[in-house]
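Z., the sequence and structure:
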Amino acid sequence: MTYSRFEDLPVWQEAIRLAEDVYGMTESKNWHGSHSLRDQLERAALSVSNNIAEGFERGTTNELLAFLYIARGSAGEVRSMLCFLERRPAFANLKFQISNLKPIAESCSRQLRGWADQLQNSDIKGQRHLTEKTRTTYNAKKDADEFQKELLDKLPADHPLRKGK
C-alpha cells in the first residue's frame, strides 16, 4: 500500500498514540518524578512520531531511512525510561500505565524496523527521484514479476521450473 500522508501511516498512528499516552501519564496527579525526567520522557515519546513525519516528508529513501532509525532509537529510549520507572518505588502507583506503554513502544520499534528493512531492499530512491520514466520502469518490472509468479503457481508442484521458486 502506498501512503501519501504520514498521518495515514499505521506506525505514525501508533507513535502518536505512544506520545499521547506518555503525556497522559506524566500530566496526571500520580506523577511524582522530577521535571527533567518528565521532560526527557515526553520529548523522547514525541520524537518517535516527529521523526517518522520528517523522514516521510524529506523525499528520498536515504533520508527517510535515517529518520526511521532515529525514530526507532527514540522508541528504545522511551522503553528504557519506562523500565527505569518500573524499578523506582516512587512510580509504583503508575505500574499499570507503564506496563501499557511498553508494548506500544515495542510495536513502534518493530514496525519501524520492518519498514526500514523493506526500504533498504528497494530500488526506489524516493519521491524526489521519481520521474515518469523511473515510475514506468519500476511498475513494468513489478507487473512482470507478479505475472511470472502467477505463471509459476499454475505449474504442477513437481515441475522443474517451480523448484527454483
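The first helix runs from residue 10 to 26. The two ends are 24 Å apart (CA to CA).

Let me know what you think.
H.
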